[in-house]
Design the sequence.
């Protein structure tokens, strides 16, 4: 049982960290489809006084504050390097792309992640920064896994988000932790799983400083009215597509949809999904 709960705890607060060299982000100036772009790297401090490593991709010669912006929010195993996978669809659409390493991820400070709890606060710091440059600039969110949960939690408190792409969010961390424990322990014994769940919650509280049992994104989601495109990978063995399906059904916005595709939690997303997600965001920006 000790091995079981330790592996689940690590999956929640300390999975493998994506450590990379800054060169992995590519050149600071580059050209795509005949247009010159640049990447500005910057540091922000979150409320816990941890340094967040961030990057802002934007066209050369234009004031980025005058253009819509998409904030890309990475998975639990990822970093801002993930954002490179959406630049080729977002930049030509006339939007800038802001990305960050959440605290505990990539090159940012911090020892643990929280699958959305502390990451929502990191996102709030980014939004404050962007709005300080231009409060009227449309901002959209594109989150995946942990990043999608952080986006959804922020949207419950922030009605000024123009639209969001929510790829593979979970509906409830208590439910997800139980699913992970069942999978690792290979047992459906109710009492054993209850014991494991309590041990997991206690360890998460002690190490990462948040209450696992309180992290339930589906709670009060009917009050969120931000247009949202949900997504799920059909072979996702980490966060079942059933989570996204439940969330989109409960979600309160009139403009909402879900796209499902082949793949697992960390597999590359198909081009048609990336293109549809970009159209969804741009349409919201122009309204």
Sequence:
């Amino acid at each position: 049982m000790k091995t079981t709960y330790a592996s689940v705890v690590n999956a929640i607060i300390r999975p493998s960290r994506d450590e990379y060299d800054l060169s992995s982000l590519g050149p600071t100036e580059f050209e795509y489809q005949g247009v010159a772009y640049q990447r500005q790297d910057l540091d922000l401090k979150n409320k816990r006084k941890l340094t967040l490593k961030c990057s802002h991709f934007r066209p050369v010669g234009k004031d980025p504050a005058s253009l819509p912006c998409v904030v890309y929010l990475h998975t639990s195993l990822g970093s801002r390097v993930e954002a490179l996978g959406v630049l080729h669809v977002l930049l030509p659409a006339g939007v800038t792309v802001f990305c960050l390493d959440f605290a505990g991820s990539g090159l940012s400070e911090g020892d643990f992640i929280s699958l959305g709890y502390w990451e929502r606060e990191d996102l709030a710091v980014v939004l404050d920064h962007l709005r300080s440059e231009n409060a009227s600039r449309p901002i959209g969110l594109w989150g995946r896994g942990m990043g999608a949960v952080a986006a959804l939690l922020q949207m419950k408190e922030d009605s000024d988000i123009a639209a969001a792409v929510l790829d593979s969010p979970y509906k409830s961390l208590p439910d997800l932790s139980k699913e992970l424990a069942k999978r690792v322990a290979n047992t459906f014994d109710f009492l054993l799983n209850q014991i494991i769940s309590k041990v997991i919650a206690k360890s998460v509280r002690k190490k990462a400083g948040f209450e696992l049992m309180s992290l339930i994104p589906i709670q009060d989601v009917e009050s969120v009215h931000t247009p949202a495109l949900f997504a799920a990978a059909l072979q996702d063995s980490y966060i079942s597509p059933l989570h996204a399906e439940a969330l989109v059904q409960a979600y309160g916005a009139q403009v909402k949809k879900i796209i499902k595709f082949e793949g697992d939690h960390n597999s590359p997303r198909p081009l048609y999904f990336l293109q549809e997600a970009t159209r969804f965001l741009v349409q919201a920006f122009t309204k």
